[in-house]
Write a structure and sequence with these properties.
Length: about 140
Amino acid sequence: MHQVANVFFLIYFIYHILVGIPGIMSVKVTRVLAYNLYKLQLEENLDLKYQYALKALGFYALYTGLLCYFGLTSENAELKAKLLFALGVLTLLRALGRLVSKDLITKAFNLKSDRNIFHVSLNSAMALGMFYVAWHLI
């Protein structure tokens, strides 16, 4: 189970670093990533509040990547399980956020509902997998 946990941590580490750095550095790159990863269409000229929110999310992503790095490099099964459980909760909350805000997301980003349901399903499945592995680590 340690190897499976490490796969989760590695995937999430890479993802959060790759979206975190552009989120802080470049609105243009963030716009491209948002479309390529999620099919979200961000406006060409974002207002300053929106730009700040993207930077804040970039820092949050880097912090999440750091926690994944700690999980990946830890040999302590209890710590690894707790970090994986926390990551599972975060992932499940992301799915729930997409689910309860589906109409807002569709209108704000011109996102088709089937794409949103895909991400809700993917995040939910990943979270359940994380919970299962975390439970079996201890």
